[in-house]
Structure formats: structure tokens, C-alpha cells
Design brief:
Largest sheet: 4 strands, mixed
Strand content: 5-15%
Helix content: 40-55%
Number of strands: 10
CATH architecture of the largest domain: Up-down Bundle
CATH class of the largest domain: Mainly Alpha
Distance between the termini: 42 Å
Number of domains: 3
Shape: globular
CATH topology of the largest domain: Butyryl-CoA Dehydrogenase, subunit A, domain 3
Strand order of the largest sheet: 1-4-5-8
Low-confidence stretches: none
CATH superfamily of the largest domain: Butyryl-CoA Dehydrogenase, subunit A, domain 3
Structural class: alpha+beta
Number of helices: 11
Length: about 375
């Protein structure tokens, strides 16, 4: 079924669209048949990660020198869009490839990049970033995890929570305070291999949605890493996070826009097939008017995200613009999903229906990557 949104999208090139077809085939062949098992296991199996690596679907924007595909953010966005459109839940590819790997590629030493990035591109090494703590979510200045310098090593102590890819990860970018007296100006980033003594994974967190996403607690107890595992400069971590979080937030916006479009299409199809009181649900004026409203709002979200995507492809997307994109797209998605689910009636409460999974899986869009309230605060600073 073609999308009910009819305006032409001009932001993508032919090579982007070629990748789109590859991603769609991969999701149909390798992911959808495994979804139920992933949900039961609470994580995506390692073999799927390796297959994604062989298909060239990991680290698409990374320099070929390090094993990447040498593409741009457009290739990353295509993958995000197709995962959102497919309804496949739990894949941590975007976080791995387009959130964490860029920290290593942009801040890492030649030795660090040569050691880890090629295996990230193949799926042999899965990445995570450990920011959130039990007492510090969006407020990164409040983190309590410490990394104390002892000779040629750092000794890390602390606990992290809500860590995506937490069960599968092999390498974690840990946000820790190297100088607690300096507050936000004493934060550093350290690369931690998960096979080091002192590292422990906690329980898999039970969430309202995205059951196959391996979100976990991570613990660091007198864990020692060589000083060479410092990523970038000491005490510059907060500034690095602020630079990279814009892309993470925009990735969420890209997924939200596509999810909104896909669920509108799905609901139009459903209402035309569902018969109520002797005629299709779509034939009732209330249904058509509600879908028309949502189409207008979905169009606005799509046009905004595509405009900012074009900006990001030129490396001109600002922190403020990324916050606007995330705020508007995720709030509109949440509102639309509630209304679209209502049009499904009782079936909208059944997990076998795409709208239901989208409803529970997408609620976190307004929370992770920085809450709606944090986005408003960032935007207000530019008023």
C-alpha cells in the first residue's frame, strides 16, 4: 500500500534509495520472523547483528578506512526510517552505528579507532553508551560514577541504568566524573570493555514496550582501564556529549516521523476494511475527518524533518533545531497514535495489531535522548 502522503521527497539521492530496498529485504527476511523470539529473550540475537554487518547495514556513515561504508547521514536515516516503518522492535543498530560509533571515530586516537571500529562495522563488537544513572537521567551534571586516576590507569566505580544494548554490548562509552569538584567541567568519557574484572550487568529492565531492546543496568566496581582508554581529553566529556546529542535527538525525530506516517497508512487501510453498522468504518464522517486531521499533522512533521535532514546532510543542523525536531515530532506522534488506536476500537488493545505495538514502543520517544521538558528548555534558551 502506498503512503497517503503524496508530496515528493527530494532529500534523498539514488544511492540512498538503493540502500532502502536492501534494508527492507533484510528486515523482512531476517528480522520479522525472529521478532517473537527476540521478545521472549529480551534481546536481539548476535547472529542478526553479524548478518547486518555482512549486509553493510552497520556504521554506514563511517570512513571505509575503519571498515565503514563511507556514506553520509542520509544512509543512516534510511535505515532508521525503514526499521520504524517495518514495525520491527528492539534493534539497537541506530544507537550502535550513529550515536556511539561517532564518538569513537571523532574523538578516538588512531590506535583506538583501529582497535575497535572495524569490529563495530562487522557486528562483532556491539556498542553502548552509559550516561543515565538511578539519580541522574536528563540531568547529566548530577552523575555520580567516578573514574579516579591511579598511575597509568583509571579506576571506575558507579552504577548506570536504562542502558540500551546493555545485555549485548562488548564495549561501553562510560560517562564518569574524573574531577568531581568541577561538576559538569569534570566529566570524561572512557572506553570500557565488558570482559574486564569489576564489570557486571544487572537485570534486564522490564519495560512497557520494546521488549526485544536489551535495556539493562550496568555496574562498575573498582574496574580498572588503562589511561589509553580515555576518549578525547580529560574533563571535556560534557562538551563532547552536547555536540553529539544533537544527532541522537534528530535520529529519534526521523523515526517518529516515519512511524507516524506508517501508522496513518495502516489505520486508513484498517478503517476501509473494518465494517461497522453495515458499512466500512472509513465511511463515517468522524473517521474521515479525524484521519484528515492526522494527515495534515503528519505532513507537517514530515516536511519539517526533511528540511532539517537536508540541513544535517550539509552539517548545519544546530542543537536548537535538533531539539525542535525531536520535540514536535515525538509529541505529534504520541498524539496521533492515541487517536489512531481509538479508531481500531477493541482491536487497538490487542498486541497482535501494529498500532498497539507502535503505541507502547513509541511512548519512550518523548523521554529518551532528552525528555520533552529538556527539549523545551534547550529551545527556550534561543528565544
Amino acid at each position: 500500500m502506498e503512503s497517503v502522503l503524496t508530496f515528493p521527497r527530494t532529500v534523498y539521492r539514488e544511492d540512498h534509495e538503493m540502500l532502502r530496498e536492501t534494508v527492507r529485504r533484510f528486515l523482512e527476511r531476517e528480522c520479522k520472523p525472529r521478532q517473537a523470539q527476540w521478545d521472549r529473550d529480551g534481546k536481539v540475537d548476535r547472529e542478526t547483528w553479524l548478518k547486518a554487518g555482512r549486509e553493510g547495514l552497520l556504521c554506514t556513515a563511517m570512513d571505509p578506512k575503519w571498515g565503514g561504508a563511507g556514506g553520509d547521514f542520509g544512509h543512516a536515516a534510511v535505515i532508521v526510517e525503514e526499521i520504524a516503518r517495518s514495525g520491527v522492535s528492539g534493534l539497537g543498530f541506530g544507537l550502535h552505528s550513529d550515536v556511539v560509533a561517532p564518538y569513537i571515530e571523532r574523538l578516538g586516537t588512531e590506535e583506538q579507532k583501529a582497535r575497535w571500529l572495524p569490529q563495530c562495522a562487522t557486528g562483532e563488537v556491539i556498542l553502548a553508551i552509559a550516561m543515565s544513572e538511578p539519580g541522574a537521567g536528563s540531568d547529566l551534571k548530577a552523575i555520580r560514577t567516578t573514574a579516579r586516576r591511579e598511575g597509568d590507569e583509571y579506576v571506575i566505580n558507579g552504577a548506570k541504568t536504562f542502558i540500551s544494548n546493555g545485555l549485548n554490548c562488548d564495549l561501553v562509552v562510560v560517562v564518569a566524573k574524573t574531577d568531581p569538584e568541577l561538576g559538569a567541567k569534570g566529566v570524561s568519557l572512557l572506553l570500557v570493555e565488558t570482559d574486564r574484572p569489576g564489570f557486571r550487568r544487572g537485570r534486564k529492565l522490564e519495560k512497557m514496550g520494546q521488549e526485544a531492546a536489551d535495556t539493562a543496568e550496568l555496574f562498575f566496581e573498582d574496574l580498572r582501564v588503562p589511561a589509553s582508554n580515555l576518549l578525547g581529553e580529560e574533563n571535556k566529556g560534557f562538551a563532547y556529549l552536547m555536540q553529539e546529542l544533537a544527532q541522537e535527538r534528530f535520529i529519534i525525530a526521523v523515526g517518529a516521523a516515519t512511524k507516524m506516517e506508517a501508522m496513518l497508512d495502516e489505520t486508513v487501510r484498517y478503517t476501509k476494511e473494518r465494517v461497522v453498522f453495515g458499512k466500512p468504518l472509513f465511511d463515517f464522517q468522524n473517521t474521515r475527518f479525524k484521519l484528515a486531521e492526522i494527515k495534515a499533522r503528519t505532513t507537517a512533521v514530515r516536511m519539517m524533518v526533511d528540511q532539517y535532514l537536508a540541513e544535517h546532510l550539509r552539517r548545519k543542523l544546530t542543537v536548537d533545531e535538533a531539539a525542535i525536531a525531536k520535540l514536535y515530532s515525538t509529541e505529534e506522534l504520541s498524539r496521533a497514535l492515541d487517536e489512531l488506536l481509538q479508531l481500531h476500537g477493541g482491536y487497538g488493545y490487542m498486541m497482535e495489531y501494529p498500532i498497539t505495538r507502535a503505541f507502547v514502543d513509541s511512548r519512550v520517544y518523548r523521554i529518551y535522548g532528552g525528555t520533552t521538558e529538556v527539549m523545551k528548555e534547550l529551545i527556550s534558551r534561543k528565544l
